[in-house]
Design a protein that fits this description.
Blueprint (H helix, E strand, L loop, with lengths): L19 H6 L2 E3 L7 E3 L4 H10 L12 H19 L6 H11 L4 E8 L2 E8 L4 H18 L5 E3 L8 E3 L12 H17 L1
Length: about 200
């Protein structure tokens, strides 16, 4: 069962992303009610299993997650993605940081034919944590290369730090979800206008 991303300690988010970089960023989030609490799921075995399965990143060797390394990647990804979403030019340093994270994977090129057409694909030589980390970092480059910075957002609820890619037709989504964040902000506005 999927549960909310609030600070209730539940290991699995109810509003996951299609992008591994965004799900990694959201493994650490603030209390949507505006409290001081921060939840970090990165060390949770349930979250790790969910994340790896969802994004098809499970290493073949069964090695444990390099949590400290993933924390560093998460920190870099949040900073770089938020910079891009604010329509600020990425620096050469930002590019170097992403490149450093993606370089660890050993890949080979493969040609496949499907429906009479050739396709060039990259395939991991070894599906290990180096490859998983590189794939997560590369997904951020993919978001920025093929996406719209107007659509990468952080929830408009001031207490919420949840990042999402807005896939609505007109790109008007303001909250990570209708409940709890959208409802919470509407109720607060109503009460402040009423009082």
């Amino acid at each position: 069962m999927l549960v909310t991303h609030g600070s209730d300690g539940a290991p699995i988010p109810s509003h996951p992303s299609d992008y591994p970089c965004i799900d990694l960023v959201n493994s650490r989030f603030s209390d949507y009610l505006g409290g001081e609490g921060v939840t970090d799921r990165l060390r949770s075995p349930e979250w790790q299993a969910w994340f790896l399965e969802r994004h098809e990143l499970t290493p073949d060797d069964g090695a444990g997650a390099p949590v400290v390394r993933l924390e560093g990647l998460r920190r870099d990804l949040r900073r770089i993605l938020e910079t891009w979403a604010r329509h600020r030019a990425l620096s050469r340093r930002d590019g170097d940081v992403l490149d450093a994270w993606t370089r660890g994977a050993h890949l080979r090129q493969r040609v496949t034919v499907s429906r009479g057409e050739a396709r060039l694909e990259l395939e991991a030589v070894t599906r290990n944590w180096d490859w998983a980390v590189a794939t997560i970092a590369a997904s951020a480059a993919g978001v920025m290369a093929g996406g719209d910075p107007h659509r990468l957002k952080v929830c408009s609820n001031p207490g919420c730090s949840w990042m999402y890619y807005d896939t609505t037709l007109n790109g008007s989504k303001r909250y990570c979800s209708t409940t709890p964040c959208g409802s919470l902000v509407r109720v607060r506005r109503f009460r402040s206008a009423d009082g």
